[in-house]
Amino acid sequence: MSSGISKALESSTFLLPSMALILLYTVSGHIGSESPFEWSIHNHADMQEPRVAETDTTKQNDPEVKAVLDKMAAAGINRPSTVADVRKAYLFYPKLSGTREPIFHVEDRQIPGPAGNITVRVYSPHSTSGLPVLVFFHGGGFVAGNLDAYDNPLRSIANRCECTVVSVAYRLAPEDKYPAAPDDAYAATKWVAENASKIGVDPRRIAVGGDGAGGNLAAVVTLMARDRGAPSLAFQILIYPSLDFSTMRPSWWEETDAPTVSREAKRDVSIAYLPITANLRDPFIAPVYAKDLKNLPPALFITYEGNNPMQIESEEYVNRLRQDGVAVKASAYPNVLHGFFLMAGDLAAGKKCIDEVATTLRNTFNSTSRDSALKSVHRF
């Protein structure tokens, strides 16, 4: 493909369906069952000659990681590459999350949402009212994951942080495409703020957080809350979040040969989650394209080193947060797998991640200055 067309497409990245993409799609003879958006995700590899990184054998030779991969292989899970594969993996991951901690009270509730009721699970570490609260959005590539899968780590966080945790069962794709998930996430967060007294939490100390797709939703909710003027958020926890659907980043090509996340899975998830009219630079889809990140709550940003297809967008987002005056504590974990937050029973890094989330959140909630507990422990 000519460099001119590539540059034109990169500059839009993409408004779909765009005239350039439709023209390219048509002259290439790809008129059929695929939409222009689907064709772009499937065939964007033709636009350049990327260097695909070799598999990171260092992390796969780590004894703990190797043991996890062996368990996954025995369960028929090997480098998920389709929506069905991702869903199967997220049914298996809870088996790696360790033993279930007892907690004072757990309750599933139905709350009003933009398209019917949303199920939330409320974790209460004790009977004290006025506790800080974490609103959590699970991972799963927008197509998988559920409340049960995240039960163990969220019990641990509620107990160790001494905060209420509200876990949100937002609508999943492809049954419900964008903007269903962020609309549900925002509605649930707003409900927590507006019903703080009913669930015994402090409306001045509300945090949002999530991992993977849930990290995307947490970032999006902070942007929505800022732009819409409510609710007021005290903190955000972004655990290896997906912040960009563009295939133009080098990490899309160079850091994708990983056991628990693949370029093929990201492609299928993108097609499942986004309508064909999606603007891939909409900040409520891809927060990395937000015009500015000013006046957002302080952040704990957790990522991992090596074979991380979200690494470059993560670095960019952390740097932009800091440039716009947002306090960020950034941690990068070596020798782990995507999804390690759910693997605390088998990976020491998963347990450490849960501890870091709980400790940082507790220190921030208890601090008179909400920025004072945030010190950069690792700059990318």
Report on this structure:
The longest helix has 19 residues, at about 350-365. An 8-stranded mixed beta sheet has the order 1-2-4-3-5-6-7-8, with helices on both faces. Helix 3 (about 35-45) runs antiparallel to helix 12, helix 7 runs parallel beside helix 14 (about 350-365) and helix 8 packs across helix 10 (about 215-230). The chain has 2 domains: about 1-50, no CATH class; about 90-365, 3-Layer(aba) Sandwich (Rossmann fold). It is of the alpha/beta class and about 375 residues long. It has 14 helices and 8 strands. It has helices spanning about 5-10, 20-25, 35-45, 55-60, 65-75, 85-90, 150-160, 180-195, 195-200, 215-230, 250-255, 265-275, 310-325, 350-365, and strands spanning about 105-115, 115-125, 130-135, 165-170, 200-210, 235-240, 300-305, 330-335.
Task: Give a brief outline of the structure.
The chain has 380 residues and is an alpha/beta fold. The chain is 39% helix and 16% strand. The chain contains 14 helices and eight strands.
Which descriptors apply to this entry?
380 residues, Rossmann fold, 8-stranded mixed β-sheet, 8 strands, 16% strand
Main beta sheet strand tally, sense and closure = 8 strands, mixed
Class computed from helices, strands and strand pairing = alpha/beta
User: So what's the overall shape?
Assistant: globular
| Widest sheet: strand ordering | 1-2-4-3-5-6-7-8
Task: Tell me the number of strands.
Answer: 8
